[in-house]
Amino acid sequence: MRNIKLIIQYDGTKYRGWQKLGDSDKTIQGKLEDVLSKMTNEKIELIGSGRTDAGVHAFKQVANFHTESKMSEEDMLDYLYRYLPQDIVVTEVVEVDERFHSRYHVKGKKYLYRIWNAKRHNPFLRKYCTHVPEPLDIDLMRKAAEYLVGEHDFSSFTSLKSKNKSKVREIFSIEIKNDNELVEIMFHGDGFLYNMARIMAGTLIEVGAGRMDADSIPEILARKDRSLAGPKAPCSGLILYDVEY
Amino acid sequence: MRNIKLIIQYDGTKYRGWQKLGDSDKTIQGKLEDVLSKMTNEKIELIGSGRTDAGVHAFKQVANFHTESKMSEEDMLDYLYRYLPQDIVVTEVVEVDERFHSRYHVKGKKYLYRIWNAKRHNPFLRKYCTHVPEPLDIDLMRKAAEYLVGEHDFSSFTSLKSKNKSKVREIFSIEIKNDNELVEIMFHGDGFLYNMARIMAGTLIEVGAGRMDADSIPEILARKDRSLAGPKAPCSGLILYDVEY
Protein backbone atom coordinates (compact mmCIF):
# COMPACT_ATOMS: atom_id res chain seq x y z
CA MET A 1 0.00 0.00 0.00
CA ARG A 2 1.20 3.49 -0.83
CA ASN A 3 0.68 6.37 1.59
CA ILE A 4 -0.12 9.62 -0.24
CA LYS A 5 0.03 13.04 1.38
CA LEU A 6 -2.03 15.95 0.01
CA ILE A 7 -1.66 19.68 0.57
CA ILE A 8 -5.06 21.30 0.11
CA GLN A 9 -6.31 24.88 -0.24
CA TYR A 10 -9.98 25.66 0.12
CA ASP A 11 -12.49 28.43 0.26
CA GLY A 12 -14.77 27.05 2.97
CA THR A 13 -17.65 29.47 2.35
CA LYS A 14 -20.01 26.91 0.85
CA TYR A 15 -19.07 23.89 2.96
CA ARG A 16 -20.22 22.45 6.26
CA GLY A 17 -16.60 22.13 7.32
CA TRP A 18 -13.85 19.56 6.83
CA GLN A 19 -15.35 16.57 8.62
CA LYS A 20 -17.49 14.19 6.58
CA LEU A 21 -21.16 14.04 7.54
CA GLY A 22 -24.02 12.09 6.02
CA ASP A 23 -24.19 14.26 2.92
CA SER A 24 -20.61 14.07 1.75
CA ASP A 25 -21.07 16.66 -0.97
CA LYS A 26 -21.21 19.48 1.55
CA THR A 27 -17.94 18.78 3.38
CA ILE A 28 -14.38 19.17 2.16
CA GLN A 29 -13.38 15.68 3.28
CA GLY A 30 -16.46 14.16 1.62
CA LYS A 31 -15.84 15.98 -1.64
CA LEU A 32 -12.18 14.91 -1.68
CA GLU A 33 -12.97 11.28 -0.81
CA ASP A 34 -15.51 11.11 -3.64
CA VAL A 35 -13.00 12.30 -6.22
CA LEU A 36 -10.13 10.20 -4.78
CA SER A 37 -12.33 7.08 -4.79
CA LYS A 38 -13.22 7.62 -8.46
CA MET A 39 -9.57 8.30 -9.26
CA THR A 40 -8.29 5.09 -7.65
CA ASN A 41 -11.35 2.82 -8.05
CA GLU A 42 -11.00 2.16 -4.33
CA LYS A 43 -12.97 3.33 -1.32
CA ILE A 44 -10.63 6.03 -0.04
CA GLU A 45 -10.61 7.20 3.56
CA LEU A 46 -8.84 10.49 3.97
CA ILE A 47 -7.11 11.40 7.23
CA GLY A 48 -6.99 15.15 7.78
CA SER A 49 -4.65 17.03 10.13
CA GLY A 50 -7.78 18.13 11.97
CA ARG A 51 -11.24 19.51 11.36
CA THR A 52 -12.15 22.98 10.26
CA ASP A 53 -15.62 24.37 11.03
CA ALA A 54 -18.29 25.28 8.49
CA GLY A 55 -17.20 28.38 6.57
CA VAL A 56 -13.57 28.25 7.73
CA HIS A 57 -10.91 28.40 4.99
CA ALA A 58 -7.52 26.75 4.49
CA PHE A 59 -4.39 28.04 2.82
CA LYS A 60 -2.70 24.76 3.74
CA GLN A 61 -4.56 21.77 5.06
CA VAL A 62 -2.72 18.43 5.12
CA ALA A 63 -4.30 15.00 4.66
CA ASN A 64 -3.18 11.49 3.70
CA PHE A 65 -4.71 8.30 2.34
CA HIS A 66 -3.63 4.75 1.54
CA THR A 67 -4.02 3.27 -1.90
CA GLU A 68 -2.84 0.47 -4.15
CA SER A 69 -3.14 2.73 -7.18
CA LYS A 70 0.00 2.97 -9.30
CA MET A 71 -0.88 6.42 -10.63
CA SER A 72 1.99 8.94 -10.51
CA GLU A 73 1.92 11.90 -8.13
CA GLU A 74 1.78 14.28 -11.08
CA ASP A 75 -1.16 12.47 -12.69
CA MET A 76 -3.02 12.49 -9.36
CA LEU A 77 -2.42 16.24 -9.06
CA ASP A 78 -3.81 16.81 -12.55
CA TYR A 79 -6.80 14.53 -11.96
CA LEU A 80 -7.69 16.24 -8.70
CA TYR A 81 -7.34 19.71 -10.25
CA ARG A 82 -9.65 18.65 -13.04
CA TYR A 83 -12.41 16.99 -11.03
CA LEU A 84 -12.54 18.91 -7.76
CA PRO A 85 -14.80 21.98 -7.56
CA GLN A 86 -13.13 25.36 -8.05
CA ASP A 87 -13.13 26.18 -4.34
CA ILE A 88 -10.93 23.19 -3.41
CA VAL A 89 -7.44 22.95 -4.91
CA VAL A 90 -4.89 20.25 -4.11
CA THR A 91 -1.54 21.99 -4.52
CA GLU A 92 0.78 19.05 -3.74
CA VAL A 93 0.65 15.25 -3.95
CA VAL A 94 3.60 13.41 -2.38
CA GLU A 95 4.13 9.75 -1.60
CA VAL A 96 5.34 9.50 2.00
CA ASP A 97 6.55 6.90 4.46
CA GLU A 98 3.87 4.34 5.30
CA ARG A 99 3.95 5.41 8.94
CA PHE A 100 3.10 9.06 8.26
CA HIS A 101 -0.25 10.07 9.83
CA SER A 102 -1.67 13.54 9.12
CA ARG A 103 -3.27 13.94 12.53
CA TYR A 104 -1.08 12.05 14.99
CA HIS A 105 2.19 13.51 13.76
CA VAL A 106 1.25 17.20 13.84
CA LYS A 107 3.93 19.22 15.66
CA GLY A 108 2.38 22.64 15.20
CA LYS A 109 -0.32 24.60 13.44
CA LYS A 110 -0.84 28.16 12.35
CA TYR A 111 -4.24 29.79 12.18
CA LEU A 112 -4.70 33.23 10.65
CA TYR A 113 -7.62 35.37 11.78
CA ARG A 114 -8.45 38.33 9.52
CA ILE A 115 -10.49 41.37 10.51
CA TRP A 116 -11.74 44.20 8.31
CA ASN A 117 -11.77 47.05 10.79
CA ALA A 118 -13.73 49.90 9.24
CA LYS A 119 -17.16 51.45 9.68
CA ARG A 120 -18.46 49.58 6.62
CA HIS A 121 -17.58 46.11 5.36
CA ASN A 122 -15.52 45.52 2.24
CA PRO A 123 -17.57 43.80 -0.50
CA PHE A 124 -14.52 41.94 -1.81
CA LEU A 125 -13.26 40.63 1.53
CA ARG A 126 -16.56 39.93 3.25
CA LYS A 127 -16.19 36.16 2.88
CA TYR A 128 -12.52 36.10 3.93
CA CYS A 129 -12.53 38.53 6.83
CA THR A 130 -14.68 39.34 9.82
CA HIS A 131 -16.06 42.85 9.82
CA VAL A 132 -15.53 44.77 13.06
CA PRO A 133 -16.91 48.33 12.84
CA GLU A 134 -15.62 49.61 16.21
CA PRO A 135 -12.07 51.01 16.18
CA LEU A 136 -9.65 48.41 17.56
CA ASP A 137 -6.77 49.30 19.84
CA ILE A 138 -4.05 47.06 18.43
CA ASP A 139 -1.64 47.67 21.30
CA LEU A 140 -4.21 46.44 23.81
CA MET A 141 -4.84 43.37 21.65
CA ARG A 142 -1.09 42.65 21.59
CA LYS A 143 -0.93 43.02 25.36
CA ALA A 144 -3.80 40.54 25.83
CA ALA A 145 -2.25 38.17 23.29
CA GLU A 146 0.99 38.00 25.28
CA TYR A 147 -0.91 36.46 28.20
CA LEU A 148 -2.17 33.69 25.93
CA VAL A 149 1.31 32.76 24.72
CA GLY A 150 2.91 29.80 26.53
CA GLU A 151 1.62 26.53 27.91
CA HIS A 152 -1.80 26.90 29.51
CA ASP A 153 -4.96 25.00 30.27
CA PHE A 154 -7.25 26.54 27.64
CA SER A 155 -10.55 25.26 29.11
CA SER A 156 -11.90 28.83 29.06
CA PHE A 157 -11.12 29.06 25.35
CA THR A 158 -12.87 25.99 23.99
CA SER A 159 -16.50 25.16 23.32
CA LEU A 160 -18.21 22.99 25.89
CA LYS A 161 -18.68 20.34 23.22
CA SER A 162 -14.97 19.66 23.24
CA LYS A 163 -14.15 16.09 24.18
CA ASN A 164 -10.39 16.41 24.31
CA LYS A 165 -9.18 15.03 27.60
CA SER A 166 -6.30 17.39 28.25
CA LYS A 167 -7.09 21.06 27.73
CA VAL A 168 -3.40 22.00 27.99
CA ARG A 169 -1.87 23.42 24.81
CA GLU A 170 1.17 25.53 24.05
CA ILE A 171 0.81 28.72 22.04
CA PHE A 172 4.25 29.53 20.61
CA SER A 173 3.37 33.03 19.38
CA ILE A 174 0.55 35.39 18.46
CA GLU A 175 1.48 38.09 15.96
CA ILE A 176 -0.87 40.94 15.16
CA LYS A 177 -0.32 42.94 11.98
CA ASN A 178 -2.28 46.04 11.06
CA ASP A 179 -2.25 47.43 7.53
CA ASN A 180 -4.83 50.22 7.27
CA GLU A 181 -8.28 48.61 7.69
CA LEU A 182 -6.93 45.05 7.69
CA VAL A 183 -5.95 43.45 11.01
CA GLU A 184 -4.38 40.00 10.87
CA ILE A 185 -3.78 37.79 13.89
CA MET A 186 -1.47 34.81 13.36
CA PHE A 187 -1.78 32.11 16.04
CA HIS A 188 1.01 29.54 16.18
CA GLY A 189 0.74 26.64 18.60
CA ASP A 190 1.30 22.93 19.10
CA GLY A 191 -2.42 22.30 18.80
CA PHE A 192 -5.79 23.97 19.08
CA LEU A 193 -8.85 22.78 21.01
CA TYR A 194 -12.31 22.85 19.45
CA ASN A 195 -13.12 26.49 18.52
CA MET A 196 -10.03 27.70 20.38
CA ALA A 197 -8.67 29.92 17.59
CA ARG A 198 -12.07 31.58 17.11
CA ILE A 199 -12.60 32.13 20.84
CA MET A 200 -9.09 33.59 21.24
CA ALA A 201 -9.79 35.88 18.26
CA GLY A 202 -13.19 36.84 19.69
CA THR A 203 -11.58 37.64 23.04
CA LEU A 204 -8.85 39.76 21.43
CA ILE A 205 -11.53 41.67 19.47
CA GLU A 206 -13.40 42.37 22.74
CA VAL A 207 -10.17 43.68 24.27
CA GLY A 208 -9.38 45.80 21.20
CA ALA A 209 -12.89 47.29 21.19
CA GLY A 210 -12.53 48.18 24.88
CA ARG A 211 -15.19 45.79 26.12
CA MET A 212 -12.75 43.54 27.99
CA ASP A 213 -9.63 44.30 29.97
CA ALA A 214 -6.34 42.96 28.56
CA ASP A 215 -5.19 42.23 32.10
CA SER A 216 -8.19 39.99 32.73
CA ILE A 217 -6.72 37.20 30.57
CA PRO A 218 -4.62 35.49 33.27
CA GLU A 219 -7.66 35.15 35.50
CA ILE A 220 -9.83 33.92 32.61
CA LEU A 221 -7.24 31.21 31.95
CA ALA A 222 -6.97 30.31 35.64
CA ARG A 223 -10.73 30.03 36.20
CA LYS A 224 -11.21 27.42 33.40
CA ASP A 225 -14.67 28.80 32.67
CA ARG A 226 -15.76 29.24 29.06
CA SER A 227 -18.29 31.93 30.01
CA LEU A 228 -15.50 34.32 31.02
CA ALA A 229 -13.74 34.52 27.64
CA GLY A 230 -15.08 36.48 24.68
CA PRO A 231 -17.51 35.17 22.07
CA LYS A 232 -16.50 32.79 19.29
CA ALA A 233 -15.49 35.07 16.40
CA PRO A 234 -17.20 34.38 13.02
CA CYS A 235 -15.96 31.55 10.80
CA SER A 236 -15.34 33.74 7.73
CA GLY A 237 -12.22 35.35 9.25
CA LEU A 238 -10.48 32.08 10.09
CA ILE A 239 -7.94 30.39 7.84
CA LEU A 240 -5.98 27.24 8.63
CA TYR A 241 -2.67 28.68 7.51
CA ASP A 242 -0.12 25.91 7.99
CA VAL A 243 0.39 22.47 9.52
CA GLU A 244 3.84 21.46 10.72
CA TYR A 245 5.29 17.97 11.14
CA MET B 1 -33.95 69.66 -6.43
CA ARG B 2 -30.79 68.38 -4.79
CA ASN B 3 -28.14 66.57 -6.83
CA ILE B 4 -26.55 63.70 -4.88
CA LYS B 5 -23.32 61.98 -5.88
CA LEU B 6 -22.58 58.42 -4.76
CA ILE B 7 -19.29 56.54 -4.65
CA ILE B 8 -20.03 52.82 -4.96
CA GLN B 9 -18.02 49.63 -4.48
CA TYR B 10 -19.34 46.34 -5.76
CA ASP B 11 -18.51 42.71 -6.22
CA GLY B 12 -20.08 42.17 -9.64
CA THR B 13 -19.94 38.35 -9.54
CA LYS B 14 -23.69 37.84 -9.15
CA TYR B 15 -24.92 40.70 -11.31
CA ARG B 16 -25.74 41.16 -14.96
CA GLY B 17 -23.70 44.33 -14.97
CA TRP B 18 -24.33 47.96 -14.09
CA GLN B 19 -26.99 48.86 -16.65
CA LYS B 20 -30.61 48.33 -15.67
CA LEU B 21 -32.48 45.67 -17.63
CA GLY B 22 -36.03 44.40 -17.26
CA ASP B 23 -35.29 42.48 -14.07
CA SER B 24 -33.83 45.26 -11.98
CA ASP B 25 -32.78 42.92 -9.16
CA LYS B 26 -29.94 41.48 -11.20
CA THR B 27 -28.18 44.73 -12.10
CA ILE B 28 -26.26 47.11 -9.87
CA GLN B 29 -28.12 50.17 -11.15
CA GLY B 30 -31.50 48.44 -10.69
CA LYS B 31 -30.65 47.35 -7.15
CA LEU B 32 -29.49 50.86 -6.22
CA GLU B 33 -32.51 52.56 -7.79
CA ASP B 34 -34.87 50.26 -5.86
CA VAL B 35 -33.27 51.12 -2.53
CA LEU B 36 -32.92 54.85 -3.36
CA SER B 37 -36.57 55.02 -4.43
CA LYS B 38 -37.70 53.46 -1.14
CA MET B 39 -35.38 55.79 0.77
CA THR B 40 -36.73 58.97 -0.84
CA ASN B 41 -40.29 57.88 -1.66
CA GLU B 42 -39.56 59.10 -5.19
CA LYS B 43 -38.87 57.30 -8.44
CA ILE B 44 -35.10 57.69 -8.60
CA GLU B 45 -33.15 57.52 -11.83
CA LEU B 46 -29.49 56.97 -11.24
CA ILE B 47 -26.90 58.25 -13.71
CA GLY B 48 -23.72 56.15 -13.66
CA SER B 49 -20.28 57.18 -14.94
CA GLY B 50 -20.63 54.34 -17.43
CA ARG B 51 -21.62 50.70 -17.64
CA THR B 52 -19.73 47.74 -16.37
CA ASP B 53 -20.36 44.30 -17.90
CA ALA B 54 -21.83 41.30 -16.12
CA GLY B 55 -19.35 39.98 -13.56
CA VAL B 56 -17.12 43.06 -13.62
CA HIS B 57 -16.31 44.66 -10.25
CA ALA B 58 -15.89 48.23 -9.04
CA PHE B 59 -13.62 49.66 -6.37
CA LYS B 60 -14.98 53.09 -7.22
CA GLN B 61 -17.99 53.65 -9.43
CA VAL B 62 -19.57 57.14 -9.44
CA ALA B 63 -23.24 57.90 -9.95
CA ASN B 64 -25.65 60.76 -9.22
CA PHE B 65 -29.39 61.29 -8.84
CA HIS B 66 -31.77 64.16 -8.26
CA THR B 67 -34.15 64.24 -5.33
CA GLU B 68 -36.35 66.55 -3.26
CA SER B 69 -35.60 64.51 -0.14
CA LYS B 70 -34.27 66.50 2.80
CA MET B 71 -32.45 63.52 4.28
CA SER B 72 -28.87 64.28 5.38
CA GLU B 73 -25.91 62.78 3.50
CA GLU B 74 -24.96 60.79 6.60
CA ASP B 75 -28.45 59.35 7.02
CA MET B 76 -28.51 58.37 3.35
CA LEU B 77 -25.16 56.61 3.76
CA ASP B 78 -26.49 54.66 6.75
CA TYR B 79 -29.76 53.79 5.01
CA LEU B 80 -27.97 52.52 1.89
CA TYR B 81 -25.50 50.49 3.94
CA ARG B 82 -28.40 48.90 5.80
CA TYR B 83 -30.65 48.04 2.87
CA LEU B 84 -28.27 47.26 0.00
CA PRO B 85 -27.08 43.66 -0.39
CA GLN B 86 -23.63 42.86 1.02
CA ASP B 87 -21.94 42.91 -2.38
CA ILE B 88 -22.81 46.57 -3.04
CA VAL B 89 -21.48 49.22 -0.65
CA VAL B 90 -21.97 52.97 -1.06
CA THR B 91 -18.88 54.50 0.53
CA GLU B 92 -19.67 58.18 0.05
CA VAL B 93 -22.78 60.35 -0.34
CA VAL B 94 -22.14 64.00 -1.22
CA GLU B 95 -24.49 66.75 -2.33
CA VAL B 96 -22.98 68.37 -5.43
CA ASP B 97 -23.64 71.27 -7.78
CA GLU B 98 -26.89 70.86 -9.72
CA ARG B 99 -24.95 70.79 -12.98
CA PHE B 100 -22.77 67.80 -12.07
CA HIS B 101 -23.39 64.81 -14.37
CA SER B 102 -21.66 61.49 -13.62
CA ARG B 103 -21.26 60.50 -17.24
CA TYR B 104 -20.83 63.72 -19.22
CA HIS B 105 -18.22 65.21 -16.89
CA VAL B 106 -15.84 62.24 -16.71
CA LYS B 107 -12.24 63.39 -17.38
CA GLY B 108 -10.57 60.05 -16.93
CA LYS B 109 -11.02 56.48 -15.75
CA LYS B 110 -8.83 53.77 -14.37
CA TYR B 111 -9.48 50.09 -14.95
CA LEU B 112 -7.48 47.43 -13.15
CA TYR B 113 -7.11 44.02 -14.75
CA ARG B 114 -5.89 41.25 -12.42
CA ILE B 115 -4.35 37.96 -13.51
CA TRP B 116 -3.45 34.93 -11.39
CA ASN B 117 -0.52 33.56 -13.32
CA ALA B 118 0.19 30.06 -12.00
CA LYS B 119 -0.37 26.52 -13.17
CA ARG B 120 -3.41 26.18 -10.91
CA HIS B 121 -6.02 28.77 -9.97
CA ASN B 122 -6.24 30.28 -6.51
CA PRO B 123 -9.50 29.32 -4.74
CA PHE B 124 -9.64 32.66 -2.89
CA LEU B 125 -9.03 34.92 -5.89
CA ARG B 126 -10.91 33.00 -8.56
CA LYS B 127 -13.76 35.52 -8.65
CA TYR B 128 -11.48 38.57 -8.61
CA CYS B 129 -8.75 37.52 -11.02
CA THR B 130 -8.46 35.79 -14.34
CA HIS B 131 -6.46 32.58 -14.23
CA VAL B 132 -3.73 32.31 -16.88
CA PRO B 133 -1.77 29.04 -16.56
CA GLU B 134 0.89 29.77 -19.19
CA PRO B 135 3.95 31.70 -17.94
CA LEU B 136 3.65 35.36 -18.93
CA ASP B 137 6.59 37.42 -20.14
CA ILE B 138 5.92 40.70 -18.35
CA ASP B 139 8.56 42.64 -20.28
CA LEU B 140 6.90 41.75 -23.58
CA MET B 141 3.53 42.79 -22.15
CA ARG B 142 5.01 46.15 -21.11
CA LYS B 143 6.46 46.61 -24.59
CA ALA B 144 3.08 45.92 -26.21
CA ALA B 145 1.35 48.20 -23.70
CA GLU B 146 3.56 51.13 -24.67
CA TYR B 147 2.16 51.00 -28.20
CA LEU B 148 -1.37 51.36 -26.81
CA VAL B 149 -0.52 54.47 -24.80
CA GLY B 150 -1.43 57.76 -26.47
CA GLU B 151 -4.30 58.97 -28.63
CA HIS B 152 -5.44 56.30 -31.08
CA ASP B 153 -8.47 55.08 -32.96
CA PHE B 154 -9.27 51.97 -30.92
CA SER B 155 -11.68 50.37 -33.45
CA SER B 156 -9.65 47.16 -33.28
CA PHE B 157 -10.09 47.08 -29.51
CA THR B 158 -13.86 47.37 -29.16
CA SER B 159 -16.69 44.93 -29.67
CA LEU B 160 -18.62 45.27 -32.92
CA LYS B 161 -21.71 46.11 -30.89
CA SER B 162 -20.16 49.43 -29.92
CA LYS B 163 -22.24 52.36 -31.11
CA ASN B 164 -19.90 55.16 -30.10
CA LYS B 165 -19.36 57.43 -33.06
CA SER B 166 -15.74 58.33 -32.51
CA LYS B 167 -13.44 55.42 -31.74
CA VAL B 168 -10.60 57.78 -30.78
CA ARG B 169 -9.56 57.65 -27.13
CA GLU B 170 -6.44 58.64 -25.24
CA ILE B 171 -4.71 56.14 -22.99
CA PHE B 172 -2.60 58.12 -20.51
CA SER B 173 -0.70 55.14 -19.13
CA ILE B 174 -0.66 51.37 -18.72
CA GLU B 175 1.24 50.10 -15.70
CA ILE B 176 1.95 46.42 -15.21
CA LYS B 177 2.91 45.17 -11.76
CA ASN B 178 4.01 41.64 -11.01
CA ASP B 179 4.09 40.29 -7.45
CA ASN B 180 4.76 36.54 -7.52
CA GLU B 181 1.73 34.89 -9.16
CA LEU B 182 -0.31 38.10 -9.28
CA VAL B 183 -0.07 40.30 -12.38
CA GLU B 184 -1.94 43.61 -12.28
CA ILE B 185 -2.48 45.86 -15.29
CA MET B 186 -3.70 49.40 -14.57
CA PHE B 187 -5.21 51.17 -17.56
CA HIS B 188 -5.64 54.93 -17.25
CA GLY B 189 -7.37 56.83 -20.04
CA ASP B 190 -9.82 59.59 -20.89
CA GLY B 191 -12.45 57.02 -21.76
CA PHE B 192 -12.92 53.41 -22.76
CA LEU B 193 -15.01 52.03 -25.63
CA TYR B 194 -17.30 49.04 -25.13
CA ASN B 195 -15.17 46.07 -23.97
CA MET B 196 -11.98 48.03 -24.67
CA ALA B 197 -10.29 47.33 -21.32
CA ARG B 198 -11.00 43.61 -21.61
CA ILE B 199 -9.80 43.41 -25.23
CA MET B 200 -6.60 45.31 -24.38
CA ALA B 201 -6.05 42.94 -21.42
CA GLY B 202 -6.75 39.92 -23.62
CA THR B 203 -4.29 41.18 -26.21
CA LEU B 204 -1.58 41.79 -23.60
CA ILE B 205 -2.13 38.26 -22.25
CA GLU B 206 -1.67 36.85 -25.78
CA VAL B 207 1.58 38.79 -26.11
CA GLY B 208 2.79 37.69 -22.67
CA ALA B 209 2.03 34.05 -23.47
CA GLY B 210 3.97 34.31 -26.73
CA ARG B 211 0.98 33.86 -29.01
CA MET B 212 1.10 37.41 -30.40
CA ASP B 213 3.99 39.70 -31.25
CA ALA B 214 4.35 42.87 -29.17
CA ASP B 215 5.44 44.73 -32.30
CA SER B 216 2.20 43.84 -34.08
CA ILE B 217 0.21 46.36 -32.01
CA PRO B 218 0.81 49.44 -34.21
CA GLU B 219 -0.52 47.60 -37.24
CA ILE B 220 -3.50 46.21 -35.32
CA LEU B 221 -4.37 49.79 -34.32
CA ALA B 222 -3.87 51.08 -37.86
CA ARG B 223 -6.03 48.40 -39.53
CA LYS B 224 -9.13 49.18 -37.37
CA ASP B 225 -10.16 45.54 -37.50
CA ARG B 226 -11.45 43.88 -34.33
CA SER B 227 -10.47 40.41 -35.57
CA LEU B 228 -6.77 41.29 -35.38
CA ALA B 229 -6.61 42.06 -31.64
CA GLY B 230 -6.66 39.38 -28.94
CA PRO B 231 -9.78 37.90 -27.35
CA LYS B 232 -11.88 39.71 -24.77
CA ALA B 233 -10.37 38.71 -21.42
CA PRO B 234 -12.82 37.28 -18.82
CA CYS B 235 -14.98 39.64 -16.75
CA SER B 236 -13.79 38.35 -13.34
CA GLY B 237 -10.38 40.04 -13.67
CA LEU B 238 -11.74 43.51 -14.44
CA ILE B 239 -12.29 46.19 -11.81
CA LEU B 240 -13.45 49.76 -12.45
CA TYR B 241 -10.83 51.30 -10.22
CA ASP B 242 -11.45 55.04 -10.34
CA VAL B 243 -13.43 57.75 -12.14
CA GLU B 244 -11.96 61.23 -12.41
CA TYR B 245 -13.76 64.56 -12.92
From TrEMBL, chains A, B:
Substrate binds at Y111. Gene3D superfamilies: Pseudouridine synthase I, catalytic domain, C-terminal subdomain, Pseudouridine synthase I, catalytic domain, N-terminal subdomain. Residues 7-104, 144-245 form the Pseudouridine synthase I TruA alpha/beta domain. Keywords: Isomerase, tRNA processing. Its EC number is 5.4.99.12. SUPFAM superfamilies: Pseudouridine synthase. GO terms for molecular function: RNA binding; tRNA pseudouridine(38-40) synthase activity. The keyword tRNA processing applies. InterPro entries: PsdUridine_synth_cat_dom_sf (IPR020103), PsdUridine_synth_TruA (IPR001406), PsdUridine_synth_TruA_a/b_dom (IPR020097), PsdUridine_synth_TruA_C (IPR020095), TruA/RsuA/RluB/E/F_N (IPR020094). The keyword tRNA processing applies. It catalyses: uridine(38/39/40) in tRNA = pseudouridine(38/39/40) in tRNA. It is an enzyme of class 5 (isomerase). Pfam families: PseudoU_synth_1. GO terms for biological process: tRNA pseudouridine synthesis. The active site is at D53 (nucleophile). Formation of pseudouridine at positions 38, 39 and 40 in the anticodon stem and loop of transfer RNAs. PANTHER family: PSEUDOURIDYLATE SYNTHASE (PTHR11142), TRNA PSEUDOURIDINE SYNTHASE A 2 (PTHR11142:SF22). NCBIfam families: hisT_truA (TIGR00071). Homodimer. Belongs to the tRNA pseudouridine synthase TruA family. This is tRNA pseudouridine synthase A. It comes from Acetivibrio clariflavus (strain DSM 19732 / NBRC 101661 / EBR45) (Clostridium clariflavum).
